[in-house]
Amino acid sequence: xxxxxxxxxxxxxxxxxxxxxxxxxxxxxxxxxxxxxxxxxxxxxxxxxxxxxxxxxxxxxxxxxxxxxxxxxxxxxxxxxxxxxxxxxxxxxxxxxxxxxxxxxxxxxxxxxxxxxxxxxxxxxx
Length: 126
Fold this sequence. Notes:
Elements: E1 4-7, E2 10-13, E3 18-24, E4 32-39, E5 46-51, E6 58-60, E7 68-73, E8 78-83, E9 92-100, H1 104-108, E10 115-116, E11 120-125
Parallel strand pairs: 2-11
Antiparallel strand pairs: 1-3, 3-8, 4-5, 4-9, 5-6, 7-8, 9-10, 9-11
């Protein structure tokens, strides 16, 4: 069982930056591909970014590539999402996700997710 707790959300102006963090419980964190998803008001949840077990591989949604960076620290059981050049359309609840036996690309194209966090709200004002 893995529990995921997100933090770092808040209100930021367009063009600004935020860093989200996700703390994971359990001793098997390094065996999970980790990812971030988001859900804007009235829209379906969508993939944002994912990172492989050793951080050797990452995958991003086209809408955030070049602006967001995902990273992980297996010693601290954390995964982070650095978000730069934020836009109003980035406003959403951001969820941390963990999945066993998958790749970042597979997570991005619709693979099943083993565990979800409860989310943290990011609001970007224009």
